[in-house]
Design brief:
The protein contains ten helices and nine strands. With about 300 residues, it is an alpha/beta fold. The strands form two sheets. It has a seven-stranded mixed sheet with strand order 2-1-3-6-7-8-9, with helices on both faces. A two-stranded antiparallel ribbon has the order 4-5. α2 packs parallel to α4 and α7 packs parallel to α8. The longest helix has 23 residues. The chain is elongated and about 65 Å long.
Amino acid sequence: MTKQEITDLVNPLIAGVKLKEALQSLSTYVKGKDRYLENDLLMQTASFNRNHHDYFVKKLISKSDYDIAVARLNYALTQIIERLPETGNDVEIPENTASSTEGNSSVTTASQIRKILFLSANPKDADPLRLGEELRKIKDSLALSTDRDQFDLESESAVQIPTITRAMQQQNPEIVHFSGHGTGEEGIMVEDAVGEAVYFPTNGLNRLFRRFKDKVKCVVLNACFSYEQAEVISKHGIYVVGMNKEVGDEAAINFAVGFYQSLGEGNDYEFAYDIAMINIAANLSDANTPELWLDGEKLDI
């Protein structure tokens, strides 16, 4: 495809405020042809996604601020078009592409957003874990995924039991991810008012998810020896990942990366679990530690 052809294709998209499609088309055209333009378009795409999400979904910015961001992006795109190489990759625009404008019915709305609640606890009297790295890599996995606009990740650190119950009521998540320590039958480890370890017992977790079973579709217990809690919670018709023994930091993080990477590509929970298991296949001692439960049964996947 030539520069003139991609220009003729993209300009109507920009004029129609179909900015997501314009960004995708330009990115395809320059991929492998100009790394500077690739990086520029990657940054512009990230900025567009953030502003779009903040305005349409989270209502964090005003319409005037959103319009200013769109105007800046339009100008940036015209500058990028001038710098395009004379030849690039072929680009096809599917018919009836979805517009990213305010009035278009295909824009992702708040009711379509899949809320993820990331909960973490690392009491000061417990072994330290790389919880911040896990959260960051989950964010990166979702940000780089095809369906990134469909997910909203909220996090609470150093959680106590009241922190969790409040966050569950305020966020109403579809996916709940707990990262921290587990001890088997005693429950998962959270913090008290001074940051020391206390247990969120299995019966308390059972009560919690019984109340939220109509909203929560998946729980990830990225904590050692959490299979007992996984079994109990899954009886409410919820997919639950639990660990059948101690799990290392590296395996726990790699599992999370694979799981959310797959969800971000539009796959279901069983498929995402399989991709996550592939992601930790090289962690030989932990390769069979995560288990997927549903309806009180461990799934043979």
